[in-house]
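Structure tokens please, single chain.
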Amino acid sequence: MLQQILRDMYIDPELLAELNEEQKQILFYKMREEQLRRWKEREEKARTEEAMLRKTARRKQSNGKHVQWLHGKDGEVWVWVMGEAPGDKPYEQISEELIAERARQQAQKEAEELWRQKEAEITKKFRDAMAQEKARIVAEKWKVEIEDRKAAKLVEEKIQEELKKREEEERQKGEEQIRQQEEIRARELYLSLKQAQQHSQHSDDDQEWEEQLRRSKAADEERSHKARRARDEYRRQSLRAIQKGRVAGLSNLFKGTSLNHDQETKLNNDSPSSLLSLTAPSSKIWERPSRPFSQEVIIHWFKEEQLPRRAGFERNTNRVAPWFHGIISRQEAEELLMNKSEGTFLVRVSEKIWGYALSYRQQSGFKHFLVDASGDFYSFLGVDPNRHATLTDLIDFHKEEIITSSGGELLLEPCGQQKNPPDYSPLFE
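Here you go.
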């Protein structure tokens, strides 16, 4: 199963959903290793082909099209660097001019805005004064005789001229103040921009890019940490299997194992945990589909391939192991483990792969590990690289050795049957 996943570089979403976080991380690590191996293979092939092409190109005649670089007096390729050639302005001068121009434009923009505000204030001020004076004159002229209207008009014109003169003086004064403020602001902006250039070369867009880069680096570090942890787990388990001396390769010892005729006929009536014995191997040739697609096919697979290998049996007996269950769902497994203590476990026949699922009760919930049985050995898919000759070997091994270093799962207590007949009975009918 694992070899097929690595060959196709694809895992079915339903199968992926059955894996816990540790299994997913180690499976990702193995797929990444395979990607790197293929990439190196392609790069080596590309380098070889490129070398062959260069070798072939050298053999061609020299009259083909080619590019010829312009050389200087020193015989080297001629290069022109802006700002260093004769007549070019130095980079520092160009930078100073750009900063000064930028400061001048900014100050001019601010001065124009300030002048618009000032002009609006002046206009409003003298418009109000003119209206008030005009209203006063209109009110007074009704009090004077008709012959005095000409004199009143002359007075009005004189007052208007005086107000216009004062308005013009106010405008000139305001323009001078704005001009002085513009010059001062231009110098301030120039110094500010110069200081900003010296301390930081990044604009607002650069700061946003830096924030994205920081988040990207943090995500890369998190992925690297997970991959490193998965790699360490993979190596630790490999070393542990070598030290324990339980790595499989012994499955051939069990291929010829079968029960006698009396054990193949009925259940042992002395105990509810006894098993209907194995049937004789089918005379028809069993061709296993690429993946299980129905319970009937899974039952047939179990009878053809797993019974001869004593899957689900206790060691050296013909009794079903108390941890073994039939084709039950993840939800049913969690219901069986619900009120159990931490370390309680069961093994159920999987509907997703040719193999099993080990359901484990931990303090904060449940974990499920897929056990690949598609080859001539048993191993956890994506978690444990160790290969065990029998399913019982795998269970006994992890009664002493943890499954993952991060979870520290030890198989302490088997979870037995709660139904009568047992849920595995269809497998042995």
